[in-house]
């Protein structure tokens, strides 16, 4: 594919920036601040707010902290900037250094890659969309409009939740969410009743929603390496098409482990359950 990338750098030229936004020219925005200057971080917040209020809801917004080579002079903590980005539904957060080129290429490749994925999928509506390893903080609104997508990979990002509109992906059969920072399985996922495979291993799940039983077509569920202590055996039993359940690496109670082993014994050949410490 031949592509043309036009990058507008507008430090302080607010009139031009606002004109671009209002005309819908920009498909993505990188809001930059100086990690050694708290005032620039506050100014960046102002630009983010205006972007969210004045532009298309589908614009990709990235927050970038420059001068990562000057950590000894840091005024803006990495954790504070990342929390702000997550709390305000930004698509990407990254620290870079224009001096040493640290993460600069990665920043542009990630922004461009995600933006192109959205544009191409919108036009061609392919079956699969792969957005793994992009340091994404949230699922862009454009993705939730792609109702024809059947396979969605969001692995190895920084997702803490999924938007409610994720339930619009009604044709999804495979959802890959492993290696993120999810603490709960979003209700929007449970509404995707055509799911066949759901991978949420290596997150921080502490519980599963009671409505898990709605995923009647689910055949494979990977829950390894989370923080689950309990699993409702009745809900798992209701998943009649489930053939593989992986729960290794969770602090499950002995009672739950015993119940899972009994469930497997009652369904020989139908369901394979991996339980840590089963022996």
Automatic annotation (TrEMBL):
Keywords: Leucine-rich repeat, Repeat. Residues 142-262 form the Disease resistance R13L4/SHOC-2-like LRR domain. SMART domains: LRR_BAC (SM00364), LRR_SD22 (SM00365), LRR_TYP (SM00369), RAB (SM00175). GO terms for molecular function: GTP binding; GTPase activity. The keyword Nucleus does not apply. GO terms for biological process: regulation of signal transduction. This is Ras- protein Rab-5B. The lineage of its organism: Eukaryota, Metazoa, Cnidaria, Anthozoa, Hexacorallia.
């Amino acid at each position: 594919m031949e592509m043309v990338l036009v990058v507008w750098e507008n430090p302080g030229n607010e009139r031009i920036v606002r004109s671009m936004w209002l005309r819908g020219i920009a498909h993505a925005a990188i809001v930059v601040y100086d990690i050694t200057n708290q005032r620039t971080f506050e100014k960046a917040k102002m630009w983010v707010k205006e972007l969210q209020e004045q532009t298309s809801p589908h614009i990709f917004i990235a927050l970038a902290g420059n001068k990562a080579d000057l950590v000894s002079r840091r005024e803006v903590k990495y954790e504070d900037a990342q929390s702000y980005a997550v709390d305000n539904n930004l698509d990407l957060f990254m620290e870079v250094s224009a001096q040493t080129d640290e993460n600069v290429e990665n920043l542009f490749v990630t922004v461009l890659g995600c933006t192109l994925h959205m544009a191409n999928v919108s036009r061609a509506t392919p079956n699969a969309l792969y957005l793994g390893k992009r340091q994404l903080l949230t699922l862009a609104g454009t993705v939730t409009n792609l109702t024809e997508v059947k396979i969605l990979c969001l692995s190895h990002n920084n997702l803490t939740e999924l938007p409610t509109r994720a339930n619009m992906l009604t044709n999804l059969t495979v959802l890959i969410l492993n290696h993120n920072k999810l603490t709960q399985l979003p209700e929007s996922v449970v509404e995707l009743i055509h799911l066949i495979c759901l991978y949420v291993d290596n997150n921080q799940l502490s519980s599963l929603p009671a409505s898990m039983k709605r995923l009647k077509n689910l055949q494979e569920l990977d829950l390894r390496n989370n923080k689950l202590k309990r699993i409702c055996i009745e809900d798992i039993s209701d998943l009649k098409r489930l053939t593989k359940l992986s729960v290794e690496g969770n602090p499950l109670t002995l009672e739950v482990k015993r119940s899972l082993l009994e469930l497997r014994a009652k369904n020989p050949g139908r369901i394979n359950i991996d339980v840590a410490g089963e022996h």
